[in-house]
Amino acid sequence: MNITELLAEADARAAKGQIPLAEAFYRQVLDQIPLHPVALFGLGRLALERADPAQAEAFFAGAVRGMPAHPAYRVYHGMALRQLDLLDQAIITFQAAIRLVPDAVQPWLGLIDCLLARQDWPQARAMIGQAQQQGVTVAPLLTVLGQGLARAGLTGEAGQAYGEAISMAPAEQPAWLARASLYLKNRQLDEALRDARQAVALDGGDARALVVLAAVLRAHQDLAGAIAAARQAVLLSPRLVDACAELGTLLHQAGEDAEGVTHLLAAHHMAPHRLDIAYNLAACFMAAEDYPQAGQLYRQCVEAKPDWRDACTNLGVALLRQGRLSEAECLLQQAVAIPEDADAAGKPEARYNLAWVQLLQGNFRAGWQNYEARWDLPDFSSPRRPLPVPRWSGEADPALHLLLHAEQGLGDSIQMMQLVALVRQRVGRVTLEVPPALYRLALSLAGVDQVVVADLSDPARLPVPCDAHAPLMSLPLLSGLGLSDLPRATAYLNAPAPTSALCLPDSPLPRVGFVWAGSPDNKIDRYRTIPWPLFAPLTAGTGCAPWSLQWGQQPPEGINCCMAAVKDMADTASVIAQLDLVIGVDTAVLHLAAAMGRPAWMLIPFAPDYRWLDTGDGSPWYPSLRLFRQHRSGAWAEVVAEVRHALSGWVSERGSGRIG
Fold first, then answer.
1. Residue 565 in contact with residue 502, Cβ under 8 Å?
2. For the chain, which has fewer Cβ within 10 Å, the N-terminal or C-terminal residue?
3. How wide is the angle at C-alpha 607 spanned by C-alphas 603 and 610, nearest 5°?
4. What is the C-alpha separation between 237 and 242, in angstroms, rounded?
């Protein structure tokens, strides 16, 4: 191929985004003519596209030396110098281009952009006036002026500049687009949507306009519309970083993490320095439970921006999920310590996750203190109660009438009920407020003078007159309990006599109850619930009579069940009292069995709930509970096999009389 053919082929490959092939053809030209300006210019543009302004500047400088009267070469050289923040040289270069083509808009745009980078607003305005005298259409220059003002935080002046551009040239699409972005940043969402739609209407082939429209629709909570706009942007410009990043982020928000990863990976490969892309890609990997990949990306964010609290917190969580607790604690301590003026948001989330790590390691003193940050979480499942009496601080007062109120899940309340008797020793009277499902069960609890059913239609209303209140999950903190101070009550909840519908038939085999799924409303349910096909081997072929304790599900074939007659946790306790063993995942049913002192085996994930600590097969809360831990994240089959082996042995020993 001759030089002309090589250059044509290189240009064609570059237009198709085939960067390595385009570079190869340009370099073949340089092999024949080492300083060929057209080839150098082509390589410079490719270097700019892959965000390498230093190499681009070297190529453009060579092109300018070869053809000093070519204005485009000088404009692109100025662009590379501007990206390198070599503003003096960039200004000289753009001025040289203006002398060559004084009526062309591009060199004026570059010159004004450099002046804006210096925040020299008067000189930038003066240059717009000079350009107008040269016959240049100034609407694009006003748009660039607005963008510079917006970057400096002068949003009012920026909006005025965009308005001038639009008044002067109503078809000036970049001005509409820039003003839409400004409105979006200022949360003027209706105005942003109007301008973004106008920008798309003026140029439907502009992928950048579609990206802005997608972002505005996302802010309007129109996720489907935002995804459609972002998809169109990617179709139009597959190598536009913002288009790929926006589509990937939207798909993550829609729960389509597999496809979201594809687009965010593409954006990350094109712009590895973009921290926003790395952060959103990490979120997709977290959703996919790929914690090592997520951790690498969050670490990139933290190393580049140490005061980014959310990135620091999320890195800590990624390490926690990998079982790297010491490292996780260091990162979460770092996240908590970031000054408020650097990043005010996210501190409660950092403290809450730090509490998990500390409690997992048995550091109750610090862990329960940080666990109080739950009240400041925006999506906490049990919002703070604005009750008209003070919160109890743990002081002893024999005249005090204390209201203890349940929070979070049924299992949380069952766990903390064992501390009520300790609290009762410090105060004169205890009223316990619980959900309806726990009311009859709580009547058997020692240390309670009165049990009432919670009615949260008015969270500020006291169910009974009292002097102070405390949420149940704060009792370890208020009681000053360390790990070794837990009462470890063998049985503190009792079952009522079963109704006829709940009486289990006699069986020559030991009766074992099974629970394999938690509430899908729980944020961590995907870690604890075991799909039935994986759990099923525990219920057959082990020599026991299987009974389902699963709420709200039809029992699989071959499993006995009377849960249709169960109305509350007291009924569940009546069933459990007739069983020889309860086996299941981390749910309220397992808490209940252990609180009754019944033998219970719990299968827990690799990164367990904080209350089960990070090691050991026993629980400091429940003497009758045995823990079976995942050895690898998501590896339930191994745990099920271990439990099945233990169950077969348990049945054999029971038959031989070695177990009472």
1. yes
2. C
3. 85
4. 10
Task: Write out the E strands in 498-633.
Answer: 511-515, 545-548, 560-561, 581-585, 600-604, 625-629
CA distance 80 to 536: 64
Residue 591 near residue 584, CB atoms below 8 Å: no
d(CA 23, CA 293): 31
Band of pLDDT at residue 286, cut at 50, 70 and 90: very high
Helix or strand or coil: residue 507?
coil
CA-wise closest residue to 486 among 364, 577, 371: 364
Please name the residue that has the structure tokens 């499942």.
Answer: 381
Query: β-strand 600-604 against 450-453: which pairing, if any?
Result: unpaired
Q: Which helix (H) or strand (E) holds 449?
A: none
Contacts of 515 (CB under 8 A, 6+ apart): 548, 549, 550, 582, 583, 584, 585, 587, 589, 590
**Percent with pLDDT over 70 in the chain:** 99
- Which among 619, 562, 570, 614 has a CA at the least distance from the CA of 596? 570
Check if the beta carbon of residue 600 is closer than 8 Å to that of residue 573: no
Q: How far apart (Å, rounded) are the C-alpha atoms in residues 420 and 365?
A: 19
Please state, in angstroms and rounded to a whole number, the distance separating the CA atoms of residues 447 and 429.
9
Using CA atoms, how far residue 565 sits from 97, 439, 444, 574, in Å, is: 86, 17, 21, 11
Nearest CA to 372 out of 338, 347, 403, 348 is that of 348
CA distance linking residue 315 with residue 325, whole number of Å? 12
- Give the position of tokens 């309670």: 448
Give the C-alpha separation, 161 to 149, whole Å.
Answer: 9
Strands laid side by side in the 427-434 sheet:
450-453, 427-434, 397-405, 468-471
pLDDT in the model for residue 343: 66
DSSP 163-225: HHHHHH-TT-HHHHHHHHHHHHHTT-HHHHHHHHHHHHHH-TT-HHHHHHHHHHHHHTT-HHH
SS3 of 599, please?
A: coil
Q: What is the pLDDT of residue 523?
A: 76
Q: Is the pLDDT of residue 517 over 50?
A: yes
CA distance 371 to 472: 13
Q: What are phi and psi of 486, to 5 degrees?
A: -65, 140
